[in-house]
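We emphasize that the prediction below concerns an isolated chain of 153 residues; any contacts that depend on oligomerization or on bound cofactors are therefore not represented. The input was used exactly as deposited, without trimming of termini.
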Amino acid sequence: MFCQKIVKYFLLFFIFFLTISTLPTKAEIMIEDEWARVMPSGSGSVYMKILNNSDLDDKLISASSDNAKMVMIHRSVRDGDIVKMIHIHDGIEIPGNSSISLKPGDYHLMLMNIDNTFSLGNKINIKLNFEKQGAVEIFPITKLRPPMMHKHE
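Result of the prediction step, given as a token string:
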């Protein structure tokens, strides 16, 4: 009887351990090279590199800021001579063990109605919300960094 209880508890523990060890863990998101461009009009944009160091895919689903009334995920798309900004409603996928760059002329965070107290060199508070990782807070510095210049041949 005593041996049966021990075997029973051992089997329950073993099954529990196997169940826990096979559950997926949350994504391991890291942010690099974050910076922001703020315009006198009260709008701006935030750029960064998002690294997913997990085997699991994750998704940037939204962003917010205490320093701006609205933060939207956008993508700039060139259509001939016209550049259009598209609001990305369903987020940006970040595949496992890879990265994605938010950069001028492509994906970026659009800031609207920014506090008028910001100037070059200030840090702006941004909260990134990921599907698996949850919230990640960043503090990009406001800079003037010109977009990449294209060579004309």
